[in-house]
UniProtKB/TrEMBL annotation:
InterPro entries membership: PPR_rpt, TPR-like_helical_dom_sf
Name this protein carries in UniProt: Pentatricopeptide repeat-containing protein
Top-level taxonomy: Eukaryota, Viridiplantae, Streptophyta, Embryophyta, Tracheophyta
Cross-referenced Gene3D superfamilies: Tetratricopeptide repeat domain
NCBIfam families assigned to the protein according to its UniProt record, in alphabetical order: PPR (TIGR00756)
Family: Belongs to the PPR family. P subfamily.
Pfam family, one: PPR_2
Recorded coiled-coil stretches: none
Superkingdom, taxonomy of origin: Eukaryota
Swiss-Prot/TrEMBL keywords: Repeat, Transit peptide
Amino acid sequence: MVHALDFDPANVPAYDSFLTTLVSSGSSTALSDAMEYLAVLRRYRCSPGEKFLRAALAAHLEARELRSAVVLWDDFVLRRGLVPDKEMYNTMIMLQGTLGHAEVTVKYLDDMAIYGVFPDTDTYNVVLKLLLKGRKLREASAIFKEMVKNECWPNEANCSLALSVFLDTRDWETGIKVWKCMAANSLPPLEEGGNMLVSKLKDEMLPEACKYAEDMIDQGIKLSSSTLAKLRHSLGKVKKGDIHDRLLAKWKAH
């Protein structure tokens, strides 16, 4: 088939169509066959275009084949000057992150602006999730701040995960920022998140725990009786039972 197309560097659309169809065929050998044909074309200074790259990267993601995908990316983007789109970036981010290279996803995110491609909420959420699950917490904190600055909000799963991870690692500052973002923008899970925050803060940041408990009550976010009981215990140990009594009265009034 490649020979039927002839070897003409200007015949990019034909090579693009052929290899895109091949790599997307669903055959068990589709990816390897497409890469073999690509190698033949390269020897004659011929190349497919962006449709093939997009489909080939998706096939690499499905096959969990990172090394060949990076080679392909470097060849098309860095050497040939093809301008990648957001879908291509998202595929590479997913591939790097799911195969244990979460920190590398930040580089792709940073590189997007060079090509005039800007991450959206979905892209940010993919990167944030990968960083949190990969325990790259410094990078995750930076990405969270960046996405919020750009008014891209974490989804429900990431709100819950980020709050849990940052509080469990005693990064109180970032954990509180996550909660403030959730509360200010009504991002779920508000009830679960607020009770988690108060419960985690009560042992080391009791005044803040009481403040956010009161904020929850004022904002109509349900503070559970078990969370209030934990506060009562912590406040009792420092002889601040009156604070609990005030919170309890307000809680009952709501």
